[in-house]
Amino acid sequence: MAKKLSIFIAISLVLSLCDAFNLDNPSSRRILVLLDDFAIKSSHSLFFNSLQSRGFDLDFKLADDPKNALQRYGQYLYDGLILFSPSVQRFGGSIDAAAILDFIDSGHDLILAADTSASDLIREIATECGVDYDEDQSSMVIDHTSYAVSETEGDHTLIAADDFIKSEVILGSKKIEAPVLFQGIGHSLNPANSLVLKVLSASPAAYSANPNSKLAQPPSLTGSSISLVSVLQARNNARVMISGSLSMFSNRFFRSSAQKAGSSTKHQKSGNEQFFTELSKWIFHERGHLKAVNVRHHKSGEVEEPGMYRINDDLEYSVEIFEWSGTSWEPYVANDVQVQFYMMSPYVLKTLSTDGKGLYSTAFKVPDVYGVFQFKVEYQRLGYTTLSLSKQIPVRPFRHNEYERFITAAFPYYGASFSM
Amino acid sequence: MARTTTKDAQDLFHSLRSAYASTPTNLKIIDLYVMFAVFTALIQVAYMAIVGSFPFNSFLSGVLSCIGTAVLAVCLRIQVNKENKEFKDLPPERAFADFVLCNLVLHLVIMNFLG
Question: Would you identify the family this protein belongs to, as annotated (chain B) (predicted)?
C-alpha cells in the first residue's frame, strides 16, 4: 500500500515537472536569482518587484549555496537566470560556467551584471557570450563630459548615458526621455560578431581607467566602442543581457533624479526603471518573439498541396506569422517578409503581402527550370527572433503529351515529310 | 600541267553530259526525284543549324523521310534500268510496287516519330 502511494506521488511529481515547459508559452516563468548576499534582494527590490508583478516566480539564492542546481535528472528547473553576483569565485552546488552555457544553449535566457569587483568566473561567462570586459581589475568607466551632476564633485564615474540602440522592439515604443545612470566597468564587443548588440553605449568622450591612480598609458577602451549594456540573441533565440554595473538595477538609481552634465534639463526620475523594465520584457521573450506556422503552397485554383510542380505552373504560397505579446499570440504585421524559390540561388524572390491578421501570401509562376527547389523564408530583423523556414518541392519538366500539339518551330519538318 | 587538268575536267564533264542525254526519260524523272529529296533534306539541316534543334525528334523524322525516300528511289532506279543485267527478269511494275510499299512503311514510322 505504501509502495503504491509512493509510486503515485512520484508519477504526479514527474507530471507536474513536465507541465512546466509549455511550448505554447515562450515567456520564462521561473527565474533563479543568484546573489552575493541577501542585502541585494532588498536594495534592488523595485527591479525584482517589477518582474514579479509580470508573473515571474523568482527564486533567490546565494551564489555559493551548495544546494544550487539548474537542472535535476536532465530537466531544467528554471526558465531564466539572473546573475547579480559579480564577486563570486565559484558557484555552489552543481552550477559552474559550463552549466550556465549549457543553460543558454538549451534556449533559456540570462541577465548578467558585473561590477568593479567582477571575478574571473563572471568575466569568463561574459567572454563566452561575446562580450569582453576591460582586463584591468580596478578600472571603471569615466566620462568627464557626460557624468551625472550631483551635489558633490565626484570622480565622474557616475555617468548619465542616453546613447540607446534604435529599436522599438528592444526598448519599447515609448522613448526614454531621462538618461540612464551607470557606475561600473565597461566592456567591448567584437565587431565581427553579428549576434551581440550594444543597447546602451558610452559617449565618445568616455574611457575606461582606474579612477584612483594616474593614467600611465592611454586607456585601451575608449569612446563609443565602450558598451555599458549589451544583449546577445543566440542562434537558438536565447537572449542574454550583460551589464557592467550592478548598481544600475538598484532602488537608489531607480529613484534618483538625473541630470547630464552640460544639459540644463533635470529629470525627476532617471531612465533606469523604464530602461530595465522594457529591456527585461525583451529578454524574457515578452516582446519580439515570432513564430511561423501553417506554411502552405498549392497550385492556383486548387486547394491541396501537390507533391510536385511542373515548370511554368502558377502557384500560391502562404505562411502565418505571430508575435508573442506576453500573454497571447498576436498577428505580426510587417511589409518586408520575403519568400525565395531557391535552388542553389533564388530563382524567384517575392515580398509577401499581409492581410493584417498574420497571414502572409503571394503568388508567382514557377520558373522554366526543373530540379528540386525549396521555399525559403529567412527573416532576420534587429530585435526579433530569426525565422528560418524551408520546404522542399521538386519541379518536373513537361511530359511529352504536355507540349502543344503542333510545335511552330517544327513546321518545316512537317512540310518536308508530307511532301515526300 | 594546270591547263591539262582543267581541260581534262572540262572534257570529263562534257562526256558525262552527252552520255546522260541518252538515258531514258523515266530514269531522268527518278533522278530528279532523288535530287529533290536530298535538297529538301539539306534545307532542313540548314534550318536546324539556324534555329536550333528544339523538337529534335521532328528534325530527325523530317531528314529521315527525305533520305529514306531518296534511298528507296535509288533502289527503284537500279531495278528499273534496262541496262542492268542483274534485274533482267524483274518487271518494272513490281519494282515500282515495292517502292510504293516501302515508302508507306517508312512514312508510317515517320508520322509516329514526327510528334
Answer: Belongs to the DAD/OST2 family.
Phi, psi of A103 (to 5 degrees): -60, -45
Q: Does B62 touch chain A (CB under 8 A)?
A: yes
Q: What is the pLDDT along chain A (420 residues), one digit of tens a residue?
A: 677 776 766 565 555 444 333 445 666 689 999 998 899 999 999 999 999 998 899 999 998 888 888 888 888 889 999 999 988 888 888 888 999 999 999 999 999 999 888 888 999 999 888 898 888 888 888 888 888 887 777 788 888 888 898 888 888 888 888 889 999 999 999 888 889 999 999 989 898 888 888 888 888 888 888 999 999 999 998 999 999 999 999 999 998 888 888 788 888 888 899 999 999 999 988 888 999 998 999 999 888 999 999 999 899 999 999 999 888 899 999 999 999 999 999 999 999 999 888 899 999 999 999 899 999 999 999 989 999 999 999 999 988 788 877 777 778 788 887 887
CB atoms within 10 A of CB A187: 29
Query: 547630464: which residue's cell?
Result: A260
CA–CA min distance A416, chain B (Å): 6
| Contacts B58 to A, Cβ<8 Å | 407, 410, 413-414
* Cβ-nearest to A413 among B37, B62, B103: B62
d(CA A260, CA A162): 9
Instruction: Please indicate whether, in this complex, the C-beta atoms of A420 and B61 are within 8 angstroms of each other.
Output: no
Q: Contact A407/B41, CB-based, under 8 Å? A: no
Contact, A417 vs B111, CB < 8 A?
A: yes
What value, to the nearest 5°, has the Cα angle with vertex A166 and ends A161 and A168? 115
Nearest CA in chain A to B70: A420
Q: In A275-370, at which residue ranges do the beta strands (DSSP E only) sit?
A: 290-299, 309-310, 314-324, 329-331, 338-343, 345-351, 353-354, 359-365
**CB B54 to CB A413 under 8 A?**
no
Distance (Å, whole) CA A277 – CA A241: 13
Report chain B residues whose CB lies below 8 A from the CB of A402.
Answer: none
Residue (of A33, A388, A79, A386) closest to A233 by Cα position: A386
Distance CA(B41)–CA(B49), nearest Å, equals: 12
Residues A266, A58: Cα–Cα separation, whole Å: 34
Q: Report residue A332: phi and psi, to 5°.
A: -95, 130
A74 grid coordinates: 536532465
In angstroms, the CA A38 to CA A53 distance is 20
Point out the residue among B44, B54, B65 whose CB comes nearest to the CB of A409: B54
Amino acid identity of residue A353, one-letter, is S
C-beta neighbour count of A329 within 10 angstroms = 19
Give burial (CB, 10 Å; 0-12/13-18/19+) of A169: middle
